[in-house]
Amino acid sequence: MTPVLETVGLSKGFDLRGGIGQPARRVQAVSGVSLALMPGHTLGIVGESGCGKSTTARLIMGLMPADAGDLLLDGKAVGTGGGAMRAFRRNVQMVFQDSSASLNPRLTLERSVAFGPQVHGLPAREANARARDLLARVGLDPARFAGRYPHEVSGGQRQRVNIARALALQPRVVIFDEAVSALDKSVEAQVLNLLADLKAEFSLSYIFISHDLNVVRHVSDEVVVMYLGQVIERAPAADLYAAPAHPYTRALLASMPSHDPDRRTTHPPLTGDPPSPIDLPPGCRFAPRCPLVADVCLARAPALAVRGRHACACHLADAGSGHPQAGAGA
């Protein structure tokens, strides 16, 4: 199948103004990220804070320009002009983490949902009818909630409004950037069940960005692991959680809390901080923290090697890399 949404070599850097007598420097936030979202699937993206997850989502949505790379919808390149992005956003929408900041405090919940369709040319009466229908579908009775303002509802209800607003343009892809991380667990479970129902009802495809590895495992068909702006591992969710190939992915999964007293983590699976994105190491970006680091890791960056549906950027996964444990550690 052709991916419904695809990125090829997406990159983005930010210039930092230098101090007195110091040159300007550049932060490389995203480096050559390639993703493929298949129709009807959920692609999970995980990684530490600052790894480039949210920047990648904003690049996909055109909220900031990419330095390099291509964006494809149904295998066709998406243009950079205003008209092309306008058409693209009818097919791809995004739900942000902060449910309060995402809504205009001066608009009622009904108007918040109806606003997008009206901007795209739908008559006001039809837009309002669609908004009321979507509010009902996300579990908010329009008779009770349509006339309320964002400050008059709870955080979970606001996030439901954001989901309804994202669906108002009848998109094919929805990107969720930490959309449930601010909710308590009972509300989070309700929203996740809602997303599963809406995905089946509207034939949607999701990109799901989260720090919660348990949630990502529950909702995703495929998982991408990012580190310092790069994709370092990609695999079907079941395969990645059962047999992670990259040392960083193993450390992430080892950090997941367990309810079993005999399996509790007593030692940190990973120590140290990631290198500064302003001054990246010459070889593997994970080498300064990797417990299996070798000379080849410091000298040469590993390529993303693909084996079937599992891809890993680590010298351990490449038998010919020159790493002394290559093959045995994969």
Query: What's the CATH class of the largest domain, please?
Result: Alpha Beta
The portion of residues assigned to helices is 25-40%
| Contiguous runs where pLDDT drops below 50 for at least 5 residues | none
Structural domain tally = 2
Radius of gyration: 21 Å
Beta-strand content estimate: 15-25%
Q: So what's the overall shape?
A: globular
Supply the number of helical segments. 11
What is the CATH topology descriptor of the largest domain?
Rossmann fold
Q: Please report the total strand number as a whole number.
A: 12
CATH superfamily of the largest domain: P-loop containing nucleotide triphosphate hydrolases
Give me the secondary-structure category: alpha/beta
Return the CATH architecture of the largest domain.
Answer: 3-Layer(aba) Sandwich
Largest sheet: 8 strands, mixed
3D architecture notes:
This protein is of the alpha/beta class and 330 residues long. It folds into two domains: 5-242, 3-Layer(aba) Sandwich (Rossmann fold); 245-330, no CATH class. The protein contains eleven helices and twelve strands. It has helices spanning 53-61, 82-91, 109-119, 124-137, 142-145, 155-167, 185-202, 213-219, 237-242, 247-254, 295-299; strands spanning 5-16, 25-37, 42-46, 68-73, 76-77, 92-95, 173-177, 205-209, 222-227, 230-236, 305-307, 310-312. The protein has an eight-stranded mixed beta sheet, with helices on both faces. It has a four-stranded antiparallel beta sheet with strand order 2-1-4-5, covered by helices on one side. A hairpin with a 2-residue loop joins strand 4 (68-73) and strand 5 (76-77). Helix 3 packs across helix 4, helix 3 (109-119) runs parallel beside helix 6 (155-167) and helix 4 (124-137) crosses helix 6 (155-167). The longest helix has 18 residues, at 185-202. The radius of gyration is 21 Å and the shape is globular. The protein starts with a strand and ends in an 18-residue tail after the last strand.
